[in-house]
Amino acid sequence: MPMSFNLNIIEEFRANGGRVGGPFEGGDLLLLTTTGARSGRPHTVPLGFVRSEGLLLVVASAAGAPEHPQWYRNLLAHPVVRVELGTETFDAIAVPAEGDRRKRLFETVVRTAPGYGDYQAHTERELPVVVLERPEAPPGLPSEARSLADKLLEAHTWLRAQLRHVRAEAQSHSPGRPAGLGLQLRQHCLAFCAGLTHHHTGEDSAIFPALARSHPELAGVLEQLGEQHRAIGRIKDELVALLAEIGISEPDRLRSELDRMSAELETHLDHEEAELLPALAGIPFPPVRPGPTAL
Predict the structure, then answer these.
(1) Does the domain at residues 3-133 carry the CATH identifier 2.30.110.10?
(2) Has residue 138 got a pLDDT over 70?
């Protein structure tokens, strides 16, 4: 669809709580925001969706064009996406279905929206069916973050849970079966890597400098934690390099790197919590902004 046409739909969707008129009136429509594979910039498109088996599905049909749409190439590079559905907005992990699962889900999609069958008939490429997975909050999180200590534990709980999930996926397939280590594992692992980068970047750029100013006695600890960030970052870069291709060509090495990541990250998170939680517990979240000074 032309960009101007998409922009009009996006504006109407957001202005009317997810409802649009014209050719899409009454249809199931969502907005998907991906991160550009090369540009790194956000890119939003309106897409039809189908619900099946409790899943939220979109199809990279491009109206039967010979090449995949750009939004699909974006999510292969950056699986964490933003979904706007009605008046709700949430992050999701985009996971293309494979094999028999893809076939089953596509058949369900076509029963609900037959036009996708027509699109498939007009192209030689297999139309990807993408599951938009909304991550569940790991158990044990406080219902509401009241301090930066709570936010730190929230981030650490997510990282631990996501890494356990990825390792379990990798280990559930027997060694020597690289075909089993496909897109689902790849997307989940890339999402973990993105979350890890985001968390450590925020600490290095904001939290650690602020703590260094307010708690100078933590200078040595903060230096150690920064060194751990860099060591973990090198393992993360190794993982991302192994996931560069659609198929994972070195599954045994991936498993080994995930084991190494788990050992290093758990040690780091335990150390960080022991040293920083007491200081962070005294900092409210969200931060309290100082009010205007009375004249």
Answers:
(1) yes
(2) no
